[in-house]
Amino acid sequence: MSAPPSTTSDGGLSAAHGKPATIHDVAALSGVAASTVSRALSTPGRVNFRTRARIEAAAAQLKYIPNAQAKALSSGRTKAVAVLVADITNPFYFDIIRGTQLQLKAAGYTQLLVDTEESEEVEVNTIEQLMQTADGVILTASRLTDDALALSAAKMPLVTINREIPGVPSVLLDTPTATNQALDHLISLGHSHIAYLAGPASSSSNTRRWEALSAAALERGVEVVRLGPFAPRTYSGAAAADALVHSGATAGIAFNDLIAIGMLQRLQARGVRVPEDISIVGCDDIFGADFCSPPLTTVTAPVEQAGRVAVTMLLSQINPGLGTLPRSQSVLPTHLTIRGSTGSAPVRDA
Fold it and tell me: Which pLDDT score, from 0 to 100, does residue 322 have?
């Protein structure tokens, strides 16, 4: 085992004798075994959150660089990873960005953040430019075609979040399962005519949710209609709310929380009571979903963890010597969080 880290003149810590910090130095400073440090930095989901945070802080304090990454410094790599998000103003992406940032920082990488503006063209052009400036790319909610995405993945290390095609490593939030939980929740409240307020036609998540929801509705013998598509922003909620009222459905499941929050605002303006007249369910559990009036019933997902896992999967491609086998896919569970925007189905006159 290496000697304990020593204190530098500026109050920081370094490895003994001025040598680069080792995994044993990080372990000594954080009070855990070296094997725990290895797991925390390579597969963070296997380590307790508080322990992982302590290890990451120690690694940052010691400026610890894993062996494989140290070799990369002289290999011409940029030590930068790009994270592309479809809309940086959407709170859904905040936790993904935080997860990728923390995981990349712990591994000694810089994060390059790009807003692709829900545009396939911007996404393609950005990836082409990044081939010279980044070691790898994480795509969130990519709008690329399957062929374009597969071609990009063949050119450089790449991981997608919420997009699934053969041959491209991906992290999936299992929102279809929780969307079906939302359907069962509404059925238990007496709703039999339900609407799905769809998101962008180019969204893979939108397609997956609708396919799961329509199949589940058929099995359960209830009617679910698809309305939209609607842009995944709050201002689209007004049109979505009007469409829902016009459809005659007593409940709506929105593509995301932004649409759902806009719906709540529009329904209130129209004098339609939620949940007495209509029930609303969102998706993503963004910051503020529980501050709505009424608080929003929504699908909750481990979004920050998705960002961390995506980084781990990407770094295993960039640095095969890290000791972790590259994974082709990781599916993270979700669940329904029930709040005040859903209630018993209203009694309609015959």
Answer: 58
pLDDT digits 0-9 by tens, 45-99:
677 878 888 888 888 888 887 664 555 444 557 899 999 998 999 999 999 999 9
pLDDT tens digits, 103-115: 999 999 999 999 9
Residue at 336 is within a domain: no
Segments forming the whole domain that contains residue 100? 75-172+303-318
pTM of the model: 0.75
326 lies in some domain: no
Residue 8 pLDDT more than 80?
Answer: no
Q: Which one, of 128, 12, 139, 20, lies nearest residue 69 by Cα?
A: 20
Residue 268 falls within a domain, yes or no?
yes
Within 13 A of 250's CA, how many CA atoms are on the CB side?
A: 20
Distance CA 19, CA 3 (A): 10
Tokens coding 183: 């359907």
Domain total in the chain: 3
The radius of gyration of the chain's CA atoms, rounded to the nearest angstrom, is 23
**Does pLDDT of 15 surpass 60?**
no
Whole-Å CA distances, 218 to 180, 223, 224, 247, 343: 12, 8, 8, 19, 22
Is residue 185 located within the same domain as residue 230?
A: yes
Examine the domain organization and report whether 82 and 192 are in the same domain: no
Instruction: Indicate if the pLDDT at residue 12 is higher than 50.
Output: no
- Does residue 2 surpass a pLDDT of 70? no
Q: Are residues 181 and 247 in the same domain?
A: yes
Both ends of the chain: CA-CA distance in Å? Answer: 79
- What residues have CB less than 8 Å from 178, skipping those under 6 apart? 283, 299, 300, 301, 334, 335, 336
Whether residues 231 and 308 fall in one domain: no
Render 89-101 in DSSP notation, one character per residue.
TSTHHHHHHHHHH
Q: Which residue has the tokens 């920081």?
A: 12
CATH number of the domain encompassing residue 311: 3.40.50.2300
